[in-house]
Write a structure and sequence with these properties.
- This protein has about 325 residues and is of the alpha/beta class.
- The chain has a single domain, classed as NADP-dependent oxidoreductase domain (TIM Barrel).
- Helix content is about 40%, strand content about 10%.
- The protein is built from eleven helices and ten strands.
- The strands form two sheets. The chain has an eight-stranded parallel beta sheet with strand order 9-8-7-6-5-4-3-10, with helices on one face. Strands 1-2 form a two-stranded antiparallel ribbon.
- Strand 4, helix 2 and strand 5 form a beta-alpha-beta unit.
- Bound molecules: NADP nicotinamide-adenine-dinucleotide phosphate.
- One of its GO terms (molecular function) is oxidoreductase activity.
- This is Aryl-alcohol dehydrogenase.
- Pfam families: Aldo_ket_red.
Amino acid sequence: MEYTTLGSTGMEVSKICLGCMSFGSGRDWMLDGEEARELVERAIDLGVNFFDTANVYSAGESEEILGDALADYDRDEFVVASKVRFPGADEHRNAERLSRKTIEQELEASLDRLGMDTLDLYQIHRWDYETPIETTLRALDDAVRRGRVRHLGASSMWARQFLEARRVSEREGLAPFETMQNLYHLAYREEEREMFPVCDAHDVATMPWSPLGAGYLARPHGEFRTTTRGDHEVENAGVPYHEFPASEEINGRVRELADEYGVAMAQIALAWQFQNDNVTAPIVGTSSVDHLEEAVEALELSLSASDVEYLEEPYEPVPVYGHE
Ligand SMILES: NC(=O)c1ccc[n+]([C@@H]2O[C@H](COP(=O)([O-])OP(=O)(O)OC[C@H]3O[C@@H](n4cnc5c(N)ncnc54)[C@H](OP(=O)(O)O)[C@@H]3O)[C@@H](O)[C@H]2O)c1
């Protein structure tokens, strides 16, 4: 495993963050407690110390499963991240968004499910257009001061919103967002335009979600729907990576290099993330021990500058996805 510093938090994290969105129930590609435990144990064997979940994943089941799986270990070894903004286990009208009431209630519920006293990283899952950002930041800052949260982060939003939040924190002396969890992979690179330069200027760590385009970059273009997860993405109006103008060409080039190096397509797509200066640690979302092992092996794969140029060259700008 390789480790890196999570921006200004100073925490040391594995270059692979294990995404836990697939822990829980409701879809047949999801892992129950026993299956998830096996994945988490193998991840820890391989040196992964960084885990990402959210109150909304399977209505809190993901947090519960992750907490159970980590309970046999020394909690201090791990950097655990969760999120708030969408409803968790409760569905009443104050179970979502970013009011002080929601944040305080949802944070306690997340900690309870995780079986932890403190979260290492608490992220707002999206911007809340109804609650002033100062209200949200004050509630989050209080959680930091109460020792319930160590660091704050944000996920997919406009760069101007992220900067506004950083400015309010600075002006009011509140804990700032120190990480950005955004959508980024070879077939979706819109974050290079504004968000990554902002993160770079402020020493904000980045943790791209869907680094394989929800599996699109892990298999040939025409086969996106051949897995239950891929089918789910297309049927449930996930981001239409397979329809972007340059995607087929990019996917073909990933496949070509995978053949040349004798590795899996997913390993080329991840190797591109690992060599990318924009990226601190991608959040890999596998439900398979074999695929997790492939992801870790990809750390050893070094792409040449001309490989990187070849993979990036066909990209064409597309509409912004992942936030509104
Ligand atoms: N902040 C947000 O709004 C947001 C949104 C979405 C996700 N996330 C976070 O990001 C994490 C990852 O998201 P994601 O699941 O969309 O990520 P992803 O890594 O882009 O895609 C995962 C998909 O790729 C497949 N895959 C992985 N490795 C493979 C391999 N070696 N060969 C073939 N297929 C492979 C997986 O199938 P297998 O399961 O069969 O391996 C799965 O279907 C989530 O768990 C969550 O923590 C955050």
